Amino acid sequence: MSTQSGTEFDVVIIGSGPGGEGASMHLAKNGRKVAVVERFHRVGGAGTHFGTIPSKSLRHAIFKLAEANRNPLLRTTDLALQLSFAQLRKAASSVIDRQVEMHRVYYERNGVAVFHGQGRFLDATTVEVEEHPGSKQRLTAKAFIIATGARPYRPSDVDFSHPRIFDSDKILTLEQTPQSITVYGAGVVGCEYTSMFRNLNAKVNLINTRAKMLEFLDDEIIDALCYHMRDQGVVLRHSEEYEKVEGQNDGVVLTLKSGKEIKTDILLWANGRSGNTEDMGLNKIGVTPEKRGQIKVNDHFQTAMPHVYAVGDVIGFPSLASAAFVQGRYAAAHIMGQEVPALVRNIPTGIFTSPEISSVGKTESELTAERVPYEIGHAAFKNLARAQITGQTVGMLKLLFHRKTLAILGVHCFGANASEIIHIGQAIMNQEGAANTLMYFINTTFNYPTMAEAYRVAALNGYNRLF
């Protein structure tokens, strides 16, 4: 059901997740007539209902449970909180409802028409919306933005109907906490769930199909995460590939091509995602998805048809809700002829392992390959008063800066609240000229004791390396 009458629009957006919302809000606030097509009955996209919000809410609940059980008072009295996976998952439901209502109000207040149903291109200027068989409506527009997101990749030889075999969507239906789990795939999703289940005291095998985990991160951060996971009892296996997955009554056997066989209570398949591009009539407008359904775009997020854009997870990396939102805004601005190059610059990554990881800017490997003369500044969390007070001493902040200009080139953080801490560095990196230098952190007074003080410590550490 639409919230606005009429079927002719300036822009039609398919998908109401972060990418669709970012685009529609920017267009509406600039006086454009906008329609959003959402195939589910509620807005918000897969991230709200199956991905980011439920998984991060679940992570928080698990972390709080683990934190409580580490409390010396409970440990000395032999008391421990025992909650099932399903009970921990309930914390997410209320958050999802509040998020959906918030997004719904955004569309309503900005006069964006919302049509529920499957959207399909009939031709280059027309999309048909089918809410249910026999109920169809045609929308026409001068431009389109595809923001349909992605879903977990499911290889055909793995039986996901088996009650012990899960992907990152299905895992949210898990009722009881397993004693052991194999996580196949060491990307963002796989690493995050590895941390969650280990915090629930499950025995975890993490199978990485590549030589290194999270290769887009700085090597030192990757090494720190691997060390911490192993220290917590996670078994890491790199450069492995599955031969077959066999679900049994009492567990799942994963057979690897190296000959290893691993049996655990359940298996979580977290090896890649597929773009949601099926049944959209893309062939009728000359847009052909690549492998796993992803849509190829240029630097302005235009597809093979210049008036049809694609943003968010449906185009692949970096597959972050935050990135999708700014990509949507960028595409909207490009449609209107606005210049907004800064929108898609220095987008931070946020990986909600335990502890968190967050990065923005260049890595050491990238700077070395580009032959940029850089230096490093470190701040170990174990040396910060605030970390000592809270007991969250694992982690570090790392600054990469130009040896001559002192410009901040990259910020990398591993530890508690890394996804929040990173934004200080991001703000400085986005400044122009002399404002983006190491001296900002050296000459700025930070509250004490705080985690933000790590910037001053790291800056001084790096500055001292120059002399």
Secondary structure layout plus pairing:
Elements: E1 8-14, H1 18-29, E2 34-38, H2 45-49, H3 52-69, H4 72-76, H5 85-109, E3 113-116, E4 118-123, E5 126-132, E6 135-146, E7 150-152, E8 165-167, E9 180-184, H6 188-199, E10 203-207, H7 219-231, E11 235-237, E12 242-248, E13 251-256, E14 261-264, E15 266-269, E16 273-275, E17 308-310, H8 321-335, E18 349-351, E19 356-361, H9 364-369, E20 374-380, H10 385-390, E21 395-402, E22 408-415, H11 418-429, H12 438-443, H13 454-464
Parallel strand pairs: 1-2, 1-6, 2-3, 6-17, 8-15, 9-10, 9-15, 10-11
Antiparallel strand pairs: 4-5, 5-6, 7-16, 12-13, 13-14, 18-19, 19-22, 20-21, 21-22
Write a structural description.
The protein has 467 residues and is α/β, with parallel strands linked by helices. The protein has three domains: 8-152 and 274-344, FAD/NAD(P)-binding domain, CATH 3.50.50; 165-271, FAD/NAD(P)-binding domain (3-Layer(bba) Sandwich); 355-464, FAD/NAD-linked reductase, C-terminal dimerisation domain (Enolase-like, domain 1), CATH 3.30.390. It has helices at residues 18-29, 45-49, 52-69, 72-76, 85-109, 188-199, 219-231, 321-335, 364-369, 385-390, 418-429, 438-443, 454-464, and strands at 8-14, 34-38, 113-116, 118-123, 126-132, 135-146, 150-152, 165-167, 180-184, 203-207, 235-237, 242-248, 251-256, 261-264, 266-269, 273-275, 308-310, 349-351, 356-361, 374-380, 395-402, 408-415. The strands form five sheets. Strands 1, 2, 3, 4, 5, 6 and 17 form a seven-stranded mixed β-sheet that branches. A five-stranded parallel β-sheet has the order 8-15-9-10-11, with helices on one face. The chain has a five-stranded antiparallel β-sheet with strand order 18-19-22-21-20, sandwiched between helices. The radius of gyration is 24 Å and the shape is globular. The N and C termini lie far apart (67 Å).
